[in-house]
Amino acid sequence: MKKLSLFIIVITIILAASELQAQEKLVNKNIRTISVTGVAEKEILPDIIYFTISLKEYQLKTGSKFEISELENQLINAVEKAGVDKKNLTVENVYGYNYSWNKKNENKDFMARKQFQLKLSDTKKLNLILSKIDPKSIEYVRVSQYTHSRLQDLNQELQVEAVKNAKAKAEALLKPLDEKVGKVIELNENQQNFQPIYYKSYQNNRMMSTSAEETASMESDLDFKEIKLKAEVHIVFSIQ
Question: Which of 59, 83, 108, 231 makes the best surface tag, with the fewest CB within 10 Å?
């Protein structure tokens, strides 16, 4: 008997919920709405750039070999003298190569490479750091990552601007019709990622000297474009 009573109660609740949903759908059909898209954009310069610096051992014709440990110390000292925290320099990868693999004296011909990641907020310091390193040891320098310290906050600010833009657009469209914007019925955000920057790598053949003229040339080779941020929202307003 108790089970039957419980069953009846459950059925009653389900029927009541179904009727309520049907009434809501009927009401929604009678609501007049306007659908608009709001967009906000902003361009900013990156203030956090990660560079990959690859150093390699090399050997002179006299037989003298410049070890990777010596080259690494040069890089560390150059970073510190540039006023950059040593914590911003980390090891990314270590590997080696052997040009005379078919010879018996393989160990003598083995050349090690080491890649470092350097975090900078001022790209001009990169030129100062590279000028203090043996140019023949620099295999390449490239941008590995970039971002902005306030990226999340800036995206949120753009989202707010996009919402305001959508509301202003809805009001402008309804004004000639003597109608007013009502409450928000639906709001959807379209996630937008910032566009990549363009850069040129510092190749080893451009690093054969550290003259003031070439240092200036290296600086002009690094051409950062602004990060393009974009927020887009789709909003459905009721019409009063």
Answer: 83
Spell out the CATH class of 48-147.
alpha beta
Q: What's the mean pLDDT when you consider all of the chain?
A: 78
* Cβ partners under 8 Å of residue 234, min gap 6: 35, 36, 37, 166, 186, 187, 188, 189, 190
Q: Which DSSP string do the residues of the chain spell out, in sequence order?
A: -HHHHHHHHHHHHHHHHHHHHHHHHHHHHT--EEEEEEEEEEEE--SEEEEEEEEE-EE-TTS-EE-HHHHHHHHHHHHHHTT--GGGEEEEEEEEEETTTTSS-HHHHEEEEEEEEEEES-THHHHHHHTTS-GGGEEEEEEEEEE-TTHHHHHHHHHHHHHHHHHHHHHHHHGGGT--EEEEEEEEEE--PPPPP----EEGGG-S---HHHHHHHHHH--PPPEEEEEEEEEEEEE-
Q: What are 28's two structure tokens?
A: 């929604």
The answer to whether the pTM exceeds 0.90 is no
Domain boundaries, given as residue ranges, for the chain: 30-46+149-240, 48-147
Q: What is the CATH number of domain 30-46+149-240?
A: 3.30.110.170
